[in-house]
């Protein structure tokens, strides 16, 4: 029996982000909905044809989405909250885009209209909540269901797309999200209600869907249940048994490939292999150690799909190593597929489009298309013998060896320095109580000091100047002069409205990670390595390929210039090591923790240089610390230990009187409050405006003693908060924490806002702080 070559899903945004362009132009009313549908259809066809041409035996369909596959599933199942129902037919794009993006009366940029005119009135409807898909940087729209939710098959998207491919002569394997994972991801619209309790109501809709897929001609369906790699309770495990027993009983003539990814099955292995499905996909990149147990426990007639090519990173696969591992399994099992570890949604699309990458580094990489080529090659080697593809295997081995031996990857100076680091480097010289006294004496700030998180609006002019500079239309001198002007204006304005601790505004930064990556060694940047973040939004994560070092100071000149304009303290502003790591493609030849430590040392040097230049306050943002938490609780502590240590390593090179700030823009601290405490930042600013200060409970329960700036201004909305509102929030904060600990600041940076919102909001914020000072 041959080994079959398969894929679990392909990026839908298009190698040149064609879908992004089509979506945004439709949303803004420049093009019609028909044009959008046409582009989507072309993209799907091209994707199927390309995969077929690459030699895949199993090509997925249904992996296309206009916005998000979880939203597609919610709509398909009829889980459309009542607020969206008046906006159009349940299966319409009006409802779909309203759930994805919200609608605002009078704003034409929130939906896109039909060529034949837009029939629906629009109200003010918020978008569904968005959150990260497992431990990826992809965001999905969170399904919301209440006890009275009834399900019905509202769209037949997977069936339609299967037929569409079939019409092109391509027999695909439809992909759907499984019922248990979908329910486990759903949030409850009512307290005390558990979405999983509606499994019985949901299953008939899945039975109908599966039957329709079978009737349309599908023989296999890929049903994604990544929840099987999470910590599950007995109820959830029982739900899996119930669901798949029901499908086995009620849908005949259709085989299910149950797909798990992003981790090992662990203690859910028995549950998974015990389900009455025809196939099981396992992730052998994130959890290579599970292969033996899976092979041993899987019944002989279970088709195994082995995820051997990393679907989430950019490195070439060591094909010889995979063959050594898989060939013995292939010899023993008759039903075997090879596949990427997970959908390729999380990888950039095509390395061939990269014309500017260092050819040495480029030779080590594989993007989506190249990963499928690797799989095709592996298939040939397994089926026809390695000699049949000897040349290609030799080329792969040469790339792998070159990467291993390359001086670009290993920097002896970085390694020697890291080896000399001892625990003392991660500890400030004196405890917080002493530090804060020294800092207060120097800074001489009023109680409830006011500040901002760092960035000011990245206006059209700022972006235009950056683009012109990038294209060579504006020379360095001109660009520098422009940025200086922006910075000076920001400083003057902050002084004018009476903020206590100023920022330079970050006008020179394209992105809080890229800006640093571009100045550090060991990083590479792509031109077209886009990965979908959410909806039409894509990011181009840097690639960390080698040891990280900081050849020279990165931010000191800008800080020095800003500080030269004012007597008030200006914060040095840096991105922390965990966040830089988390938002990059990370090398896979050493533990993440080691890479993080290297970045931490580079940031530490920058902190020390800022101090030497005269900075009294340095902020190290760790926006991504929480999202780095592993999927399984047993792995949390280990992660938190090295993540916190990396932050401390970055922060602890300075004198006691230098004040270290950190910023985190999320609002769930309960799980990690001890780690936040252990970071020992002198001041932390966090997001709290939306939750109305509720999360401060975690800080007071922990008896958090360091200083803290709970955001009083929700920067995610153009709304200008009033002085009274912000005062109320501050009073509330002072009930959980001591007023002497508190700072006054917005929730996050202001780069996405407009000056016309920011100005009155910050004026009000300063007034709120002043009003409260009068009462303490
Ligand atoms: N200093 C950054 C800014 O103000 C922080 C942003 C973030 O944490 N997301 O934009
Ligand atoms: Zn933030």
Top keywords for this entry?
single chain; 776 residues; alpha/beta; eight-stranded parallel β-sheet; 21 strands; binds glutamine; binds zinc ion; amino-acid biosynthesis; Cobalamin-indep_Met_synthase; methyltransferase; metal-binding
Could you walk me through the main structural features you see in this protein, from its secondary elements to its overall organization?
- The protein is of the alpha/beta class and 776 residues long.
- Helix content is 41%, strand content 11%.
- The chain is built from 27 helices and 21 strands.
- The strands form six sheets. The chain has an eight-stranded parallel beta sheet with strand order 1-12-11-10-9-8-6-2. A five-stranded parallel beta sheet has the order 17-18-19-20-21. The chain has a two-stranded antiparallel ribbon with strand order 3-4.
- Strand 8, helix 8 (234-250) and strand 9 (255-259) form a beta-alpha-beta unit.
- Helix 1 runs antiparallel to helix 2, helix 22 (592-613) runs parallel beside helix 23 and helix 23 (636-651) runs parallel beside helix 24.
- The longest helix is centred in the middle third of the chain and has 22 residues, at 476-497.
- The chain is globular.
- The structure holds glutamine and zinc ion.
């Amino acid at each position: 029996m041959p080994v079959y070559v398969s894929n679990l899903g392909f990026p839908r945004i298009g190698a040149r982000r064609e879908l992004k362009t089509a979506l945004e132009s439709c949303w803004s009313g420049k093009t019609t909905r028909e044009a959008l549908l046409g582009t989507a259809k072309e993209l799907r066809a091209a994707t199927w044809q390309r995969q077929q041409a690459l030699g895949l035996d199993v090509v997925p369909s249904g992996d296309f989405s206009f916005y998000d596959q979880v939203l597609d599933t919610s709509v398909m199942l009829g889980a459309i909250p009542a607020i969206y129902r008046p906006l159009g037919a349940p299966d319409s794009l009006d409802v779909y885009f309203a759930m994805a993006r919200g609608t605002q009366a009078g704003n034409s940029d929130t939906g896109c209209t039909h060529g034949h005119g837009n029939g629906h009135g629009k109200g003010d409807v918020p978008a569904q909540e968005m959150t990260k898909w497992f431990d990826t940087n992809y965001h999905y729209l969170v399904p919301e269901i209440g006890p009275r939710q009834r399900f019905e098959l509202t769209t037949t998207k997977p069936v339609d797309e299967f037929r569409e491919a079939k019409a092109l002569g391509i027999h695909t394997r439809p992909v759907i999200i499984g019922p248990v994972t979908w329910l486990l991801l759903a949030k409850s619209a009512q307290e005390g209600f558990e979405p999983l309790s509606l499994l019985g109501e949901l299953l008939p809709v899945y039975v109908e869907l599966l039957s329709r897929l079978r009737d349309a001609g599908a023989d296999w369906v890929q049903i994604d249940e990544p929840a099987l790699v999470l910590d599950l309770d007995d109820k959830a495990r029982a739900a899996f048994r119930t669901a798949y027993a029901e499908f086995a009983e009620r849908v005949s003539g259709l085989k299910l490939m149950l797909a798990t990814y992003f981790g090992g099955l662990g203690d859910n292995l028995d549950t998974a292999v015990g389900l009455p499905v025809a196939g099981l996909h396992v992730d052998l990149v994130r959890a290579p150690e599970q292969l033996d147990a899976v092979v041993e426990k899987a019944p002989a007639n279970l088709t195994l799909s082995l995820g051997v090519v990393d679907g989430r990173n950019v490195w070439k696969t060591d094909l010889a190593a995979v063959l050594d591992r898989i060939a013995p399994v292939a010899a023993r099992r008759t039903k075997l597929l090879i596949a990427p570890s997970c959908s390729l949604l999380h990888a950039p699309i095509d390395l061939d489009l990269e014309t500017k990458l260092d050819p040495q580094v480029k030779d080590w990489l594989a993007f989506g298309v190249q990963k499928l080529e690797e799989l095709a090659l592996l298939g040939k080697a397994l089926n026809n013998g390695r000699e049949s593809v000897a040349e290609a295997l030799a080329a792969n081995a040469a790339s792998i060896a070159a990467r291993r031996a390359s001086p670009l990857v290993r920097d002896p100076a970085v390694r020697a320095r890291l080896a000399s680091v001892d625990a003392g480097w991660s500890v400030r010289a004196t405890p917080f109580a002493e530090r804060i006294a020294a800092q207060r004496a120097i800074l001489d700030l009023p109680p409830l000091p006011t500040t901002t998180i760092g960035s000011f609006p990245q206006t059209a002019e700022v972006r235009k100047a950056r683009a012109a500079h990038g294209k060579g239309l504006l020379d360095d001198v001109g660009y520098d002069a422009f940025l200086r002007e922006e910075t000076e204006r920001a400083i003057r304005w902050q002084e004018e409205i009476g903020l206590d601790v100023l920022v330079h505004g970050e006008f020179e930064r394209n992105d809080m990670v890229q800006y640093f990556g571009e100045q550090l060694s060991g990083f590479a940047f792509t031109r077209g390595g886009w990965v979908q973040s959410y909806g039409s939004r894509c990011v181009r994560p840097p690639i960390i390929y080698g040891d990280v070092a900081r050849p020279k100071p990165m931010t000191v000149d800008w800080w020095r210039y800003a500080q030269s304009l004012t007597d008030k303290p200006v914060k040095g502003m840096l991105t922390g090591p965990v966040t830089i790591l988390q938002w990059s493609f990370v090398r896979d030849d050493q533990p993440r923790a080691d890479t993080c430590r290297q970045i931490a040392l580079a940031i530490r040097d920058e902190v020390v240089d800022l101090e030497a230049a005269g900075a009294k306050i340095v902020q190290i943002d760790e926006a991504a610390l929480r999202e780095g938490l592993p999927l399984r609780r047993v792995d949390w502590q280990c992660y938190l230990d090295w993540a916190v240590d990396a932050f401390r390593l970055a922060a602890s090179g300075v004198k006691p009187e230098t004040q270290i700030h950190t910023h985190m823009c999320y609002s769930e601290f309960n799980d990690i409050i001890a780690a936040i405490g252990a970071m020992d930042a002198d001041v932390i600013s966090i997001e709290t405006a939306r939750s109305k200060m509720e999360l401060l409970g975690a800080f007071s329960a922990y008896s958090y003693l360091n200083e803290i700036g709970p955001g009083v201004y929700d920067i995610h909305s153009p709304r200008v908060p009033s002085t009274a509102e912000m005062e109320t929030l501050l009073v509330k904060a002072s009930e959980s924490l001591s007023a002497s600990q508190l700072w006054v600041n917005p929730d996050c940076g202001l780069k996405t806002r407009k000056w016309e919102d920011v100005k009155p909001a910050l004026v009000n914020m300063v007034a709120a702080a002043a009003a409260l000072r009068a009462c303490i």
